[in-house]
Design a protein that fits this description.
Pfam family, one: L_HMGIC_fpl
Membrane topology: Multi-pass membrane protein
Order of helices and strands: HEEEEHH
Largest sheet: 4 strands, antiparallel
GO cellular component, one term: membrane
Distance between the termini: 30 Å
Strand order of the largest sheet: 1-2-3-4
Strand content: 15-25%
Keywords: Membrane, Signal, Transmembrane, Transmembrane helix
Subcellular location: Membrane
Radius of gyration: 20 Å
Number of strands: 4
């Protein structure tokens, strides 16, 4: 296999992939904030939540749904700040994955990544981070 990367570039490619994977896992997991409500453990992230309160109209009480799931719609995310965080974090993870996968392809394909492309990729990673 021919490579367009130096040894430092290969290390950068693999570390980029590991960091992008960790960022995406953190984005998709609902454990950003942990706490308790109605004596139950609750957690939520930007677009997922676990153990959340729901109003039971039959009994006129609030009950806890003890399962994890995403919000039903983008507007169901609790606040504008969390919606912005969801979009920005999702875009950042997408950019990080794009650069990491391109760098990994550079390990296998000769003349795919030049010095200029590497610098631009580093800038994109900075923005994605």
């Amino acid at each position: 296999m021919a490579s367009s990367l130096t040894c430092a570039g290969v290390v950068w490619a693999f570390l980029s992939f590991l960091c992008a994977a960790a960022s995406c896992v953190g984005f998709f997991m609902p454990y950003w904030l942990l706490g308790s409500q109605l004596e139950k453990s609750v957690s939520f992230g930007t677009f997922r939540r676990c153990s959340y309160p729901v109003r039971d109209e039959n009994r006129q009480t609030t009950v806890m749904v003890e399962q994890c799931g995403r919000y039903a719609s983008f507007q169901a995310i609790p606040s504008a700040e969390w919606r912005i965080c969801t979009v920005v974090t999702g875009l950042g993870c997408g950019l990080l994955l794009l650069v990491a996968l391109t760098a990994l392809m550079g390990c296998c394909v000769s003349e795919l990544i030049s010095r200029t492309v590497g610098r631009v990729a580093g800038g994109i990673q900075f923005l994605g981070g």
